[in-house]
């Protein structure tokens, strides 16, 4: 047997084994995972995101936010503890009742609000600004359109908006199919 061919075969085998091991190995932050089943891609383990929960037995105005320049208003002592669910799947609870004017679909509403994801990450908040914001209600997500009609000027509502009443699969800067959470204070209706 030709020694040159034997050494060539050994070198090719070593390169192939080394390349195979390299391709089947993925490093994560704290360990190396070697996949022995090359028929599927190797993915590092992902941490499970915890759902943010308010302190037990208390009503709060969402997760705390160190970026807030102003704080949300007071929750009424007689605020609803449980959520009400509409036929479309919107969950809401009135945190402060008001006999003030209620908006309709074409109303311009001035509000203060905070929005967060299931894991407690705040994605938007007017409390981070110097002043409340004004929107035309029919330009907002469907969950807001339905939820804002539940309170009058001076009221506060907490909304849990399912994906189909929020941003859906498109996300628009929000993770796709995310459930959205809001507290909203209605300041003015025009």
Helix-strand blueprint:
Elements (H helix, E strand, L loop, with lengths): L2 H21 L1 E3 L4 E3 L49 E2 L5 E6 L11 E10 L4 E4 L7 E4 L5 H7 L7 E6 L18 E10 L1
Antiparallel strand pairs: 1-2, 3-4, 4-8, 5-6, 5-7, 5-9, 8-9
Fold and architecture overview:
The structure is a single chain. The protein contains two helices and nine strands, in the order H-E-E-E-E-E-E-E-H-E-E. By secondary structure, it is an alpha+beta fold. It has helices spanning 3-23, 142-148; strands spanning 25-27, 32-34, 84-85, 91-96, 108-117, 122-125, 133-136, 156-161, 180-189. The protein is globular. The relative contact order is 0.16. Strands 3, 4, 5, 6, 7, 8 and 9 form a seven-stranded antiparallel β-sheet that branches. The protein folds into two domains: 1-47, no CATH class; 84-189, Chitinase A, domain 3, CATH 3.10.50.
